[in-house]
Specification:
- Helix content is 38%, strand content 26%.
- By secondary structure, the protein is an alpha/beta fold.
- The chain has one domain: P-loop containing nucleotide triphosphate hydrolases (Rossmann fold, 3-Layer(aba) Sandwich).
- The strands form two sheets. Strands 5-6-7-3-8-9 form a six-stranded mixed beta sheet, sandwiched between helices. A three-stranded antiparallel beta sheet has the order 2-1-4, covered by helices on one side.
- The radius of gyration is 21 Å and the shape is globular.
- The structure holds adenosine-5'-triphosphate.
- The site of adenosine-5'-triphosphate has 12 residues, from strand 1, strand 2 and helix 2.
- GO terms for molecular function: ABC-type transporter activity; ATP binding; ATP hydrolysis activity.
- This is ABC transporter ATP-binding protein.
Length: 257
């Protein structure tokens, strides 16, 4: 496809993301004397420490692309994804996204005391489906998740599920809808091999339906199987952005050092 025909879905322009930790006390400020000083000068509550997690990231993602986000622990992958989803503010620069990006993570909100089936209904309504659509899709979502493969788990509270079962149900709910931009944070890694194959196939379908998929994963296999482009983040900066095989090769030799 020529560049002019490609439709941008997410644009990051020199984006910086900074966490502010209020009330954090430095290692050299724990002595009784410095505690007394803070009480006398009343400076305790104004103690703010900053973590500059993403530092000047720029990229353009296009419709139909599946982009893998890789990098060492703490390199800023999840932070960037949360900012694309609009859940974290950008301190400097900007991130623009088409439609409402949906973040699908292992921590997506579910009601643990409600049954899996009820969570499917609520999740679908929250994604904007009509009650009639929810009724029609509910069974196929439960079937896709495979939680009923070993008995009728869909009618049991979510707190009785293993972490893998919960993650599978979350993925099944989010994948039931067509997304302009779907952001997946490690969710594929939690399922077993059979579920992973099924979810990877669904990610490929979502791409065909013209959405853009971002996948954060430490599994090179998942990235290879799903993405044709990879963004490699290191210490909050983009180290490489290009075709999957090329970037993974560079990343592998960096990790071996
Ligand atoms: N809620 C938070 N408050 C303060 N700092 C945070 C918070 N979440 C993340 N950080 C910091 O931001 C940086 C990037 O973290 P992030 O979770 O985005 O990395 P990651 O690449 O997703 O890591 P991993 O591969 O371990 O999941 C780290 O230095 C981390 O300590």
């Amino acid at each position: 496809m020529a560049d002019s025909e490609k439709i941008p879905t997410v644009v990051a322009d020199d984006a910086h993301i900074v966490y502010k930790i209020v009330g954090a006390i430095g290692a050299n400020q724990t002595s009784p004397l410095s505690a007394l000083k803070r009480i006398v000068t009343k400076t305790n509550s104004t103690n703010v420490r900053e973590v500059h997690a993403v530092k000047g990231v720029s990229f353009v993602a296009y419709r139909g692309e599946a982009i893998g986000l890789i990098g060492s622990n703490g390199s800023g992958k999840s932070t960037l994804l949360r900012a694309v989803a609009g859940l974290l503010p950008v301190a400097k620069g900007a991130i623009y996204a088409a439609g409402q990006p949906s973040l699908l993570g292992v921590n997506a909100a579910m009601m643990n005391d409600l049954s899996g089936e009820r969570n499917v209904e609520l999740g679908c309504l929250a994604m904007g489906m009509t009650p009639a659509e929810v009724k029609e899709r509910k069974q196929s979502i439960i079937d896709f998740s495979g939680i009923n493969e070993r008995g009728d788990f869909a009618s049991l509270p979510m707190r009785t599920y293993s972490s893998g079962m919960g993650a599978r149900l979350r993925f099944a709910i989010a994948a039931a809808k067509k997304h302009d931009v779907l952001l997946i944070d490690e969710a594929l890694a939690t399922g077993d091999a059979k579920f992973r194959r099924r979810s990877e196939a669904r990610v490929r379908e979502l791409r065909k339906e013209a959405g853009t998929v971002f996948l954060v994963s430490h599994s090179e296999q998942s990235i290879r199987d799903t993405c044709e482009r990879v963004l490699w983040l290191e210490s909050g900066e983009i180290r490489a952005d290009g075709p999957t095989e090329e970037v993974l090769k560079e990343y592998e030799s960096y990790m071996k050092k």
